[in-house]
Amino acid sequence: MPGWFERADAELFSAIDLAQRTAGLVGDILEIGCYQGSSAILLEYLRRSNERLVVCDLFEEVTTTLDDFHDRTDSYSDLSQESFEVNFLRFHKSLPEIIAGSSTTLSSSNFKRTFRLIHIDGSHEYEIVRSDLLLAKSLLIPGGFVIFDDIITLHTPGVTAAVWEGVIHDGLIPVFQTHKFYGTWSDPLEVEIPEDFKRFAHDVCGHTMSHLEYVPGSPE
Question: How do residues 76-106 score in pLDDT, each as one tens digit?
């Protein structure tokens, strides 16, 4: 299906989920920005019966908020909620909780600090990513991970600025980086990285962060 969710990140999502299960961590899952559902489908497989998956997206309304790059390149096709639901139901018997609207409204929802995994792949605008980051900080439980898409993509400087501001000023701990950023606000769980990744350690703002390169068939 259309989208940019890569196998490398699918494997890393699964490795984090395994680490959380091993630690006995139970919590909900939130995705901000789902496009046609590729990552949400995986997240539903990771969800346990006593947890919930919540998906928030503008769907058709996103066309009014596209930045200059996406508007010029026509990067997205078929942003309808119907397409997301059809794709999701190809793999699962029922839909997740769907909030059709801006992620900036979620702070007024009845959410509590119950989330163990938050995937943010919505707006690329600095102010909204900043809002999403602070929301994640208020919702993530100890041992949880927040994941930001497009951390090093050329056309998403707003994501880069907001996330690294969170590291410098809001206590966000950088743990892993692919083209996504993986972080937490608590002591990071020990995650067993699959063999298909090469791992390179960096000292960043007083923390050790690993950038991971996916090379199938090549152990670390």
Answer: 566 889 999 999 999 999 999 999 999 999 9
Phi and psi, residue 4, nearest 5° = -130, 25
- Return the closest-CA partner of residue 176 out of 31, 19, 53: 19
pTM, 2 dp: 0.91
Strand order in the sheet with 97-100: 97-100, 53-57, 28-32, 115-120, 140-148, 181-184, 173-177, 207-214, 197-204
Each residue of 168-212: pLDDT tens digit?
999 999 999 999 999 999 999 999 999 999 999 999 999 999 999
Question: What secondary structure, in 3-state letters, does 41-98 show?
Answer: HHHHHHCCCCCCEEEEECHHHHHHCCCHHHHHHCCCCCCCHHHHHHHHHCCCCCCCEE
**Could you give the C-alpha distances from 107 to 37, 53, 112, 157, in angstroms and in order?**
23, 17, 10, 24
Residue 196 maps to which CATH number?
3.40.50.150
In a domain, 2, yes or no: no
For residue 195, give the nearest of 180, 179, 215 by alpha carbon: 215
Residue 206, SS3? Answer: coil
Look up the domain containing 109 and give its range: 7-214
